[in-house]
Amino acid sequence: MKRMIGLLMMVVVVGGCGKEIEVVKMTNPFTQQVIEEYECYRDEDTNKPIKHGYYKSYYGDKSYKQVGNYKDDKKDGKWIEYYNGKLVREENYVNGKEEGKWIRYYESGKVEVEGNFVNGKQEGKVVWYDEEGNITDEDIYKDGECVEMCEGNE
């Protein structure tokens, strides 16, 4: 007998005005632990779920892996990523594309690297730091391409 591999899905429907929003919870089929949950509505023609609202994913120990929002199936707003219960990355999205400042952190919580996106492409200065907060490298990006000081940690 083949074992079912994959995720079990539990759907909770939330009523209200406009599109009917569902809360989808994906679970590990062996532990029944929720590993991903999000809000969505259904496409009227295909019945395909369209992520719209909060999104959360979890590690096996129930700590957060990623937290963010979707708008019409595209990442929107602030997204946060964790590892071992610690913040490792923050980024922003507009219409599914990275937009604005992003930061990656050392396990200690100190900034490792920070930069900026415009319309989904790296733009401006990317600054790398050591654990003590000293600048170790700087690169300049234009339209997604490194154009100055590109010899370091890119």
Lay out the secondary structure:
Blueprint: E1 8-14, E2 21-27, E3 34-42, E4 49-58, E5 64-71, E6 74-75, E7 77-83, E8 86-94, E9 97-98, E10 100-105, E11 111-118, E12 121-122, E13 124-129, E14 135-142, E15 145-148
Antiparallel strand pairs: 1-2, 2-3, 3-4, 4-5, 5-6, 5-7, 7-8, 8-9, 8-10, 10-11, 11-12, 11-13, 13-14, 14-15
Task: Provide key terms for this protein.
154 residues; mainly beta; 15-stranded antiparallel sheet; flat; disordered N terminus
Unreliable segments of 5+ consecutive residues? 1-17
User: How much of the sequence is in beta strands?
Assistant: over 45%
Largest sheet: 15 strands, antiparallel
Q: What is the tally of beta strands?
A: 15
Outline = flat
Number of helices: 0
The secondary-structure element order is EEEEEEEEEEEEEEE
Cα distance spanning the termini: 49 Å
Total discrete domains? 2
- In round numbers, the mean pLDDT is 88
Structural class: mainly beta
Q: Percentage of helical residues?
A: under 10%
Radius of gyration: 19 Å
